[in-house]
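User: Here's a structure from my thesis project, written as structure tokens. My advisor, Dr. K., wants to see whether a designed sequence matches the one we expressed. Can you design one independently, without my sequence as a hint?
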């Protein structure tokens, strides 16, 4: 028992140090970027990356399922033993093991990616000209993205409802996703290292009720995707989660990097997914900025693209309508998590992908891209 206490206290102390360093790292984003994100992060979990890449399913998800079953079962056994032996010793052991496990998870989270939240923003890292934009610029970007998406869509098949479709399986998409990152690795060298393939989630149905299209668990460097996500959204979702693997922690930046990887992929379905998702973000931003401007641009958007966006929206709404509570809990937890990670506006930061898209659009117009 004494050894268990010492081990638990040691792990708890190590976890406390890691959390302290995590908060201190907010004061030195350039150091975090150059020392951790571009160096330590790429190699510290390399053995785990090699191992999980050998397994076709999500190791993190399996561990989560095991923990969800084992912890309550062991707790019940512990309570029974306490009554049987009339001693609190089994409960103390259980508590120590639980604290030790939580400490190890926290240490792994910080060391295997948590620091990336405090690195320089993607815009500062690569010199993007992010600034306040005019409504006209946003309108022009929407029209530009619409044209690119429509051009891709012309080469794709549609179903009986006129919604774009594909015969690619999620495994085939996962195989093709890496090509997009290879295409942009010259521009962003840190994306060219070895990373495990994305994994389809076993619990995809449950993720639908939580309104989650993908997760990156950090303690295991796997990009886990909800394979039930509407097919037109799925390529971008895969690329988004793969961005987290490559040290892009912030959601708005992962959306943008996922867009880059998708639109630079040789496969036209990936390119369409990237442009469609980017257009969706920009249309939402335009609607918030000016309803008048939105009403002017909306008729210009390809009808097929709007069908695809409406079908995807209807898919997610169908799960939310079945049971709103899981979706609300998931959103609240995600919002709190992002705020803890020094992203004060929580889930609203997802919309800031538009700032990066606008910066890229301006660079293309000026010939600086």
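Assistant: Designed independently from the structure alone:
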């Amino acid at each position: 028992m004494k050894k268990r206490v010492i081990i638990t206290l040691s792990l708890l102390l190590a976890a406390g140090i890691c959390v302290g360093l995590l908060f201190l790292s907010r004061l030195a984003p350039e150091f975090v970027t150059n020392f951790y994100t571009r160096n330590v992060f790429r190699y510290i979990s390399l053995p785990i990356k090699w191992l999980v890449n050998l397994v076709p399913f999500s190791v993190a998800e399996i561990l989560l399922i095991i923990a969800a079953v084992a912890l309550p079962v062991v707790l019940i056994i512990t309570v029974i033993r306490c009554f049987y032996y009339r001693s609190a010793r089994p409960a103390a052991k259980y508590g120590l093991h639980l604290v030790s496990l939580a400490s190890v998870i926290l240490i792994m989270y910080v060391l295997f990616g948590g620091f990336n939240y405090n690195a320089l923003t993607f815009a500062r890292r690569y010199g993007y000209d992010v600034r306040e934009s005019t409504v006209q610029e946003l309108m022009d970007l929407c029209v530009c993205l619409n044209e690119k998406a429509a051009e891709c869509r012309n080469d794709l098949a549609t179903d009986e409802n006129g919604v774009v479709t594909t015969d690619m399986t999620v495994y085939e998409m996962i195989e093709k996703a890496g090509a997009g990152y290879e295409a942009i690795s010259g521009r962003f060298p840190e994306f060219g290292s070895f990373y495990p393939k994305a994994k389809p989630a076993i619990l995809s149905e449950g993720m639908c009720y939580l309104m989650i299209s993908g997760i990156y668990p950090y303690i295991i460097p796997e990009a886990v995707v909800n394979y039930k996500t509407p097919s037109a959204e799925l390529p971008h979702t895969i690329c988004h989660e793969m961005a987290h693997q490559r040290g892009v922690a912030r959601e708005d930046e992962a959306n943008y990097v996922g867009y880059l990887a998708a639109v630079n992929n040789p496969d036209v379905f990936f390119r369409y997914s990237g442009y469609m998702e980017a257009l969706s973000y920009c249309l939402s931003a335009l609607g918030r900025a000016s309803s008048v401007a939105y009403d002017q641009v909306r008729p210009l958007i390809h009808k097929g693209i709007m069908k695809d966006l409406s079908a995807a929206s209807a898919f997610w709404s169908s799960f939310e309508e079945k049971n709103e509570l899981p979706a609300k809990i998931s959103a609240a937890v995600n919002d709190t998590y992002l705020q803890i990670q020094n992203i004060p506006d929580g889930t609203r930061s997802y919309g800031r992908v538009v700032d990066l898209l606008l910066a890229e659009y301006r660079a293309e117009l000026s010939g600086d891209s």
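When you compare it with your expressed construct, this may help: The CA atoms of residues 210 and 329 lie 8 Å apart.
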